[in-house]
UniProtKB/TrEMBL annotation:
Assigned keywords, A-Z: Cytoplasm, Glycolysis, Kinase, Magnesium, Metal-binding, Transferase
UniProt protein name: Pyrophosphate--fructose 6-phosphate 1-phosphotransferase
Its EC number(s): 2.7.1.90
Organism per entry: Streptomonospora salina
Cofactor: Mg(2+)
Localization in the cell: Cytoplasm
Binding, Mg(2+): 103
Pathway this chain belongs to: Carbohydrate degradation; glycolysis; D-glyceraldehyde 3-phosphate and glycerone phosphate from D-glucose: step 3/4
Residues that coordinate or bind substrate: 125-127, 162, 169-171, 221, 265, 271-274
Main location as per UniProt: cytoplasm
Activity regulation: Non-allosteric.
Classification via InterPro entries: ATP_PFK (IPR022953), ATP_PFK_prok-type (IPR012003), Phosphofructokinase_CS (IPR015912), Phosphofructokinase_dom (IPR000023), Phosphofructokinase_III (IPR012829), PKF_sf (IPR035966)
Amino acid sequence: MRVGVLTGGGDCPGLNAVIRAVVRKGIKDYGYEFVGFRDGWRGPLEGDTMPLDRAAVSGILPRGGTILGSSRTNLMKIDGGVERVKQNMNEQGIDALVAIGGEDTLGVATQLTEQGVNVVGVPKTIDNDLNATDYTFGFDTAVGIATDAIDRLHTTAESHHRALVVEVMGRHAGWIALHSGMAAGANVILIPERPFDIGEVVEHVESRFRTNYAPILVVAEGAHPEEGQMELSAGEKDAFGHVRLGGIGQRLSEEIESRTGKEARSVVLGHVQRGGTPSAFDRVLATRLGVNAIEAVHDQEYGKMVALQGTDIKRVDLSAATDKLKTVPAERFEEAEVFFG
């Protein structure tokens, strides 16, 4: 059997660990041959490949990013895209495809499965917002990076008696903000699932200043105020229709400074969160997902995604992973609210 592998969407710590596990397991136990598609769905769309053998995956376990490259190509918006993918796979003798990605990548995988392409999915996103899996690899690394940054910012905030607003990733789900904010002792955490009242935020900030401590606010990039409270500008859209976010941290710091008369600064962690070497947890999780993905291919359980449920790796329908996002429930946010102010 000849198996194709691709990585799509944003880069993420642990992608190379999955690739390595898929290839090593497939060669050793099943004698499969592997082909890597370059740059997400662009690879099978254009037939752009690279060989994936033991030598190609040697030493990549601790490396961040992806040796296959990535993109946000949406082949479903390209005329004849599905037919081109099928043709390129047939011409190269590829029997099945392992697609490693998030909501958009696996959404395309789901549609390809419905049109007869043999696909197994592996969940990837630092946002941890894919449904049907308890955690996605990359999330633990991103939270660790954000937590370390917030720890460091506490000292400069205290030294200069200023409020610091730390903007982290999280378009629709505030998991990174919630976990890093709780871990680093943030005084306010703002997430997309809970529109915030700017008046309450300012009161928390002033309360912190009254106790002679400098406040730290952690805000997810997709967080937004209650309607009519603050004006936010929208950015351009990508191939999957997502608006480019960023700017809530700066806008919030300006509002806090204006209302309190205290100095406020914003820090945007941005792509630092998803760069660099994966944590030990993410290396192990990614490896287990890769091993189980190629086992699903061997069992011809196509249209499935391998998922972490409890401490076990299970197989779930691809559609179950993408039919809705896994967002922060109210009770989890209420746990963090205890420490606001």
